[in-house]
Amino acid sequence: PGSTDIREAVAQIQDAAEALRHLRETWDRYAVVDSEGRAGSSTDGARRILGGIAPQSGTAAIEAARATPLYRIDGAFGVVRRVAILEGNGEFGTNRPFADLDLLRYNELVEDILYEIQKADGDCYSVLFASKGSKQISGIFAEAKAQIDQGVANFDELIDLLRQAGGDQFMRTTK
Fold it and tell me: What's the pTM value of the predicted model, to 2 decimals?
């Protein structure tokens, strides 16, 4: 996190999309209700992926960001936004990737993704304090999963938007 390099920012966005997709595919490992009707102890794993459990600064923060690209993803989104605005003003001459980025839609998707990540993380945290009852906890897990599902869809749309705006030169081919 914190890099102002467009290639690193786009790579973090792609990695974050993949991490969220992987969380969705392995959701059953984290959304566990034990036999006593309490949330299992695996919610911290989901929160680490979502970037909700991580140190805030220093070397530990850098290592956390490598482990979970969703940590401080807002910075990567900001780098793309700044480059698009600068390039839209002709700062980079004739080779202007992201100059045609639909900034309105980009900003909407970014806001939605940040909300979905934060809400899913909050849900994973709140199940630890929910009163006993598998129905209540299962409902909270279902809300978190819905946020993750929507986040994956929004990341896919955002990455397509970046590609359409000429961002291929900054992107890896998908895995």
Answer: 0.88
